[in-house]
Amino acid sequence: MTKTKNERYASVWDALADTAEEAANLKVRAELMRKIASLIQESGWTQAAAAEHCGITQPRINDLLRGRISRFSLDALVNIAASLGRQVHVELEAA
Q1: Which CATH number goes with the domain that contains 74?
Q2: Considering 13, 55, 68, 84, which has the largest number of Cβ atoms within 10 A of its Cβ?
Q3: How far lies 3's CA from each of 14, 18, 41, 76, 88, in Å?
Q4: Per DSSP, which regions of the chain are E strands?
């Protein structure tokens, strides 16, 4: 899909993605990353402590906190949320 300067998009994810499906995946991953980062910050953990709680490495926590969305699959984020004792709730609505 070719995108021009004058096109308007509903969200930044729509502008970045080549398909509606890819944009939807980016939106969900971004939301999940924000919520996990918020939990980590509210807990007052260092990156090392957060990594231990999440079952991942400190550099991965750094990537998450810096919003490096391309480095996380939806599956990985669900696993991180579960390791923090959180359940991910999925709700479908009309696009």
Answers
A1: 1.10.260.40
A2: 13
A3: 11, 9, 37, 30, 33
A4: none
